[in-house]
Amino acid sequence: MSTSHAEVTPSALALMESQSPIDFRSDSTYFGRLPALNFNLSSDTPLNVINNGSPDPEKTAVRANVDPGAGSLMLSGHDWELAQFHFHTPSEHLLNGVASPMEMHLVFSDSNNDLLVVGRWVQAGAFNSDLDPIFSHIPQNTSETLHIDHFNLNTLIPANLESFRYSGSLTTPDFDEGVSWVMLSQPLFMSSEQINAFSSLFPEGDARGVQDLNGRIVLTDVPGFVTAVPEPETYAMMLAGLCLMAFVAGRKNKPLTSDVPTGSVA
Ligand SMILES: [Zn+2]
Protein backbone atom coordinates (compact mmCIF):
# COMPACT_ATOMS: atom_id res chain seq x y z
CA MET A 1 0.00 0.00 0.00
CA SER A 2 2.93 2.33 -0.26
CA THR A 3 4.87 3.33 -3.31
CA SER A 4 7.83 5.61 -3.83
CA HIS A 5 7.38 8.80 -1.86
CA ALA A 6 9.44 10.76 -4.34
CA GLU A 7 6.19 11.69 -6.05
CA VAL A 8 4.80 13.39 -2.96
CA THR A 9 6.03 16.94 -3.34
CA PRO A 10 5.68 19.48 -0.54
CA SER A 11 3.13 21.43 -2.56
CA ALA A 12 1.04 18.30 -3.10
CA LEU A 13 1.10 17.55 0.61
CA ALA A 14 0.01 21.11 1.39
CA LEU A 15 -3.24 20.45 -0.47
CA MET A 16 -3.99 17.35 1.59
CA GLU A 17 -6.07 18.41 4.54
CA SER A 18 -7.49 15.12 5.80
CA GLN A 19 -4.35 13.37 6.92
CA SER A 20 -3.60 10.69 9.50
CA PRO A 21 -2.71 10.08 12.25
CA ILE A 22 -4.41 12.50 14.63
CA ASP A 23 -4.62 13.19 18.34
CA PHE A 24 -7.99 12.12 19.79
CA ARG A 25 -8.85 14.86 22.25
CA SER A 26 -11.69 15.03 24.73
CA ASP A 27 -12.43 18.63 23.76
CA SER A 28 -12.69 18.05 20.00
CA THR A 29 -14.53 14.72 19.73
CA TYR A 30 -18.27 14.10 19.50
CA PHE A 31 -20.00 11.38 21.48
CA GLY A 32 -22.79 9.32 19.98
CA ARG A 33 -24.08 5.90 19.17
CA LEU A 34 -22.06 4.53 16.24
CA PRO A 35 -22.92 1.86 13.66
CA ALA A 36 -21.92 -1.59 14.93
CA LEU A 37 -18.67 -3.23 13.90
CA ASN A 38 -19.40 -6.80 12.84
CA PHE A 39 -16.13 -8.68 12.47
CA ASN A 40 -16.04 -12.13 10.93
CA LEU A 41 -12.51 -13.43 11.46
CA SER A 42 -11.00 -16.86 10.94
CA SER A 43 -9.83 -18.60 14.10
CA ASP A 44 -7.38 -20.73 12.14
CA THR A 45 -5.67 -19.15 9.17
CA PRO A 46 -2.11 -18.97 7.85
CA LEU A 47 -0.09 -15.75 7.92
CA ASN A 48 2.89 -14.63 5.91
CA VAL A 49 4.83 -12.13 7.98
CA ILE A 50 7.23 -9.85 6.18
CA ASN A 51 9.44 -6.96 7.17
CA ASN A 52 8.91 -4.36 4.48
CA GLY A 53 10.43 -1.43 6.25
CA SER A 54 13.30 -1.94 8.65
CA PRO A 55 15.27 0.15 9.06
CA ASP A 56 13.56 2.70 6.80
CA PRO A 57 11.00 4.41 9.04
CA GLU A 58 9.20 5.92 6.05
CA LYS A 59 7.77 2.53 5.19
CA THR A 60 5.26 0.40 6.95
CA ALA A 61 6.97 -1.97 9.29
CA VAL A 62 6.41 -5.62 10.05
CA ARG A 63 3.32 -6.81 8.22
CA ALA A 64 1.26 -10.01 8.35
CA ASN A 65 -0.43 -10.75 5.05
CA VAL A 66 -3.75 -12.54 5.38
CA ASP A 67 -5.28 -14.97 2.90
CA PRO A 68 -8.31 -13.68 0.96
CA GLY A 69 -11.52 -14.49 2.79
CA ALA A 70 -9.87 -14.98 6.19
CA GLY A 71 -11.35 -11.83 7.68
CA SER A 72 -14.11 -9.37 6.99
CA LEU A 73 -15.89 -6.47 8.62
CA MET A 74 -19.49 -5.49 8.02
CA LEU A 75 -20.17 -1.85 8.87
CA SER A 76 -23.41 -0.07 8.04
CA GLY A 77 -24.20 -2.70 5.43
CA HIS A 78 -20.83 -2.28 3.75
CA ASP A 79 -18.43 -5.21 3.37
CA TRP A 80 -14.71 -4.83 4.04
CA GLU A 81 -12.11 -7.58 3.48
CA LEU A 82 -9.03 -7.89 5.67
CA ALA A 83 -5.84 -7.74 3.60
CA GLN A 84 -3.10 -7.45 6.22
CA PHE A 85 -2.22 -6.16 9.63
CA HIS A 86 0.96 -4.44 10.76
CA PHE A 87 2.50 -2.54 13.61
CA HIS A 88 4.07 0.86 14.29
CA THR A 89 6.26 2.10 17.13
CA PRO A 90 5.51 4.29 18.96
CA SER A 91 1.77 4.65 18.33
CA GLU A 92 0.77 6.97 15.51
CA HIS A 93 -2.55 8.10 17.01
CA LEU A 94 -2.45 9.88 20.34
CA LEU A 95 -5.04 9.95 23.10
CA ASN A 96 -5.21 13.40 24.65
CA GLY A 97 -1.63 13.93 23.58
CA VAL A 98 -0.32 10.64 24.91
CA ALA A 99 1.30 7.95 22.74
CA SER A 100 1.34 4.21 23.41
CA PRO A 101 4.46 2.09 22.85
CA MET A 102 2.98 0.56 19.68
CA GLU A 103 -0.07 0.61 17.43
CA MET A 104 -1.59 -2.16 15.33
CA HIS A 105 -3.36 -1.48 12.03
CA LEU A 106 -5.73 -3.96 10.41
CA VAL A 107 -6.12 -2.88 6.80
CA PHE A 108 -9.41 -3.66 5.05
CA SER A 109 -10.43 -2.89 1.49
CA ASP A 110 -13.75 -3.04 -0.33
CA SER A 111 -14.76 -3.87 -3.90
CA ASN A 112 -13.89 -0.30 -4.96
CA ASN A 113 -10.42 -0.63 -3.42
CA ASP A 114 -11.34 1.95 -0.82
CA LEU A 115 -9.57 1.42 2.47
CA LEU A 116 -10.69 1.16 6.06
CA VAL A 117 -8.14 0.75 8.84
CA VAL A 118 -8.98 -0.60 12.27
CA GLY A 119 -6.32 0.59 14.69
CA ARG A 120 -5.55 -0.52 18.21
CA TRP A 121 -3.06 0.81 20.70
CA VAL A 122 -0.55 -1.68 22.13
CA GLN A 123 0.50 -1.20 25.72
CA ALA A 124 2.92 -2.98 28.05
CA GLY A 125 1.33 -5.68 30.17
CA ALA A 126 1.23 -9.43 30.35
CA PHE A 127 3.01 -11.68 27.88
CA ASN A 128 0.82 -12.13 24.81
CA SER A 129 0.95 -15.78 23.78
CA ASP A 130 -1.43 -15.21 20.84
CA LEU A 131 1.01 -12.81 19.18
CA ASP A 132 4.15 -14.64 20.25
CA PRO A 133 4.44 -16.65 17.01
CA ILE A 134 4.96 -13.28 15.29
CA PHE A 135 6.99 -11.39 17.86
CA SER A 136 9.36 -14.18 18.87
CA HIS A 137 10.45 -14.64 15.25
CA ILE A 138 10.13 -11.19 13.69
CA PRO A 139 11.74 -11.06 10.26
CA GLN A 140 14.83 -8.94 10.83
CA ASN A 141 15.06 -7.52 7.34
CA THR A 142 13.26 -7.26 4.06
CA SER A 143 14.57 -10.56 2.72
CA GLU A 144 13.05 -12.74 5.45
CA THR A 145 9.51 -14.14 5.48
CA LEU A 146 7.94 -15.84 8.48
CA HIS A 147 5.21 -18.34 7.65
CA ILE A 148 2.73 -19.12 10.42
CA ASP A 149 0.43 -22.08 9.75
CA HIS A 150 -2.26 -21.43 12.34
CA PHE A 151 -3.31 -18.04 13.63
CA ASN A 152 -6.52 -16.95 15.34
CA LEU A 153 -7.39 -13.48 14.01
CA ASN A 154 -10.02 -13.05 16.73
CA THR A 155 -7.22 -12.59 19.26
CA LEU A 156 -6.50 -9.20 17.67
CA ILE A 157 -9.94 -7.75 18.45
CA PRO A 158 -11.31 -6.96 21.93
CA ALA A 159 -14.78 -7.88 23.16
CA ASN A 160 -15.48 -4.21 23.83
CA LEU A 161 -15.57 -2.52 20.43
CA GLU A 162 -15.91 1.11 21.54
CA SER A 163 -13.93 3.26 19.16
CA PHE A 164 -12.97 6.59 17.63
CA ARG A 165 -13.88 7.16 13.97
CA TYR A 166 -12.86 9.73 11.41
CA SER A 167 -11.86 10.10 7.78
CA GLY A 168 -8.12 10.33 7.15
CA SER A 169 -5.28 8.99 5.06
CA LEU A 170 -2.57 6.40 4.81
CA THR A 171 0.22 7.20 7.26
CA THR A 172 2.86 6.06 4.78
CA PRO A 173 3.64 7.53 1.35
CA ASP A 174 1.75 8.51 -0.73
CA PHE A 175 -0.53 9.49 2.17
CA ASP A 176 -3.64 8.86 0.05
CA GLU A 177 -6.80 10.30 1.58
CA GLY A 178 -10.30 8.86 1.77
CA VAL A 179 -9.25 6.22 4.29
CA SER A 180 -11.91 5.41 6.91
CA TRP A 181 -10.38 5.07 10.37
CA VAL A 182 -11.77 3.09 13.29
CA MET A 183 -9.48 3.33 16.31
CA LEU A 184 -10.50 0.84 18.99
CA SER A 185 -10.33 2.28 22.48
CA GLN A 186 -9.35 -0.95 24.23
CA PRO A 187 -5.59 -1.50 24.03
CA LEU A 188 -3.89 -4.76 23.16
CA PHE A 189 -1.36 -5.87 25.75
CA MET A 190 2.06 -7.34 25.09
CA SER A 191 5.01 -7.81 27.42
CA SER A 192 7.78 -5.21 27.48
CA GLU A 193 10.10 -7.86 26.02
CA GLN A 194 7.75 -8.40 23.07
CA ILE A 195 7.42 -4.67 22.50
CA ASN A 196 11.20 -4.25 22.68
CA ALA A 197 11.72 -7.05 20.17
CA PHE A 198 9.76 -4.96 17.71
CA SER A 199 10.94 -1.47 18.57
CA SER A 200 14.60 -2.51 18.45
CA LEU A 201 14.10 -3.02 14.70
CA PHE A 202 13.08 0.63 14.39
CA PRO A 203 15.40 2.55 16.71
CA GLU A 204 14.02 5.86 15.53
CA GLY A 205 10.45 4.63 15.35
CA ASP A 206 8.25 4.08 12.32
CA ALA A 207 5.35 6.33 13.27
CA ARG A 208 4.17 9.41 11.43
CA GLY A 209 3.56 12.53 13.50
CA VAL A 210 0.02 13.72 14.22
CA GLN A 211 -1.71 15.85 11.60
CA ASP A 212 -4.11 18.77 11.91
CA LEU A 213 -7.83 17.99 12.04
CA ASN A 214 -8.65 20.88 9.66
CA GLY A 215 -12.28 20.89 10.69
CA ARG A 216 -12.85 17.15 10.47
CA ILE A 217 -15.35 15.58 12.80
CA VAL A 218 -14.17 12.82 15.11
CA LEU A 219 -16.78 10.58 16.66
CA THR A 220 -16.62 8.23 19.61
CA ASP A 221 -18.89 5.91 21.53
CA VAL A 222 -16.50 5.71 24.49
CA PRO A 223 -18.55 6.78 27.53
CA GLY A 224 -17.09 9.67 29.50
CA PHE A 225 -14.36 10.58 27.01
CA VAL A 226 -15.92 13.73 25.57
CA THR A 227 -15.82 16.85 27.69
CA ALA A 228 -17.40 19.41 25.34
CA VAL A 229 -21.17 19.24 24.96
CA PRO A 230 -22.16 19.46 21.28
CA GLU A 231 -24.86 21.79 20.04
CA PRO A 232 -28.32 20.20 20.45
CA GLU A 233 -28.99 19.71 16.73
CA THR A 234 -25.55 18.17 16.27
CA TYR A 235 -26.12 15.79 19.14
CA ALA A 236 -29.48 14.74 17.72
CA MET A 237 -27.88 14.01 14.38
CA MET A 238 -25.24 11.84 15.96
CA LEU A 239 -27.82 9.85 17.85
CA ALA A 240 -29.88 9.46 14.72
CA GLY A 241 -27.08 7.35 13.35
CA LEU A 242 -25.85 9.84 10.81
CA CYS A 243 -22.30 9.21 11.82
CA LEU A 244 -21.44 7.09 8.81
CA MET A 245 -17.99 7.32 7.36
CA ALA A 246 -19.35 9.02 4.23
CA PHE A 247 -20.86 11.65 6.42
CA VAL A 248 -17.56 12.33 8.07
CA ALA A 249 -15.70 12.35 4.78
CA GLY A 250 -18.24 14.38 2.87
CA ARG A 251 -18.94 17.06 5.40
CA LYS A 252 -15.51 18.51 5.75
CA ASN A 253 -15.69 22.31 5.81
CA LYS A 254 -19.45 22.27 5.46
CA PRO A 255 -21.90 23.50 8.07
CA LEU A 256 -23.82 20.91 10.03
CA THR A 257 -27.32 21.08 8.65
CA SER A 258 -30.19 18.66 8.65
CA ASP A 259 -30.06 17.03 5.21
CA VAL A 260 -29.32 13.38 5.61
CA PRO A 261 -26.58 11.74 3.55
CA THR A 262 -27.33 8.24 2.39
CA GLY A 263 -25.52 5.60 0.40
CA SER A 264 -22.32 3.71 1.01
CA VAL A 265 -20.16 4.31 4.00
CA ALA A 266 -16.91 4.82 2.20
ZN1 LIG B 1 -0.09 1.55 9.58
Task: Provide keyphrases for this structure.
5 helices, globular, 12% helix, binds zinc ion, twelve-stranded mixed beta sheet, disordered C terminus, single chain
Q: Which fold does the CATH topology refer to?
A: Carbonic Anhydrase II
The helix fraction, in percent, is: 10-25%
The sequence of SSEs as H and E is HEEEEEEEEEEHEEEHEHH
Mean pLDDT: 84
CATH class: Alpha Beta
- Name given to the CATH homologous superfamily: Alpha carbonic anhydrase
**What ligands can be seen in this structure?**
zinc ion
What is the percentage of strand-forming residues? 25-35%
What distance separates the N and C termini?
18 Å
Question: What's the architecture, going by CATH?
Answer: Roll
Largest sheet: 12 strands, mixed
Poorly predicted ranges (pLDDT <50, ≥5 residues)? 1-6, 241-266
Structure classification? mainly beta
Count of folded domains: 1
Rg from alpha-carbon coordinates: 18 Å
Number of helices: 5
Please give the number of β-strands. 14
Categorize the overall geometry. Answer: globular
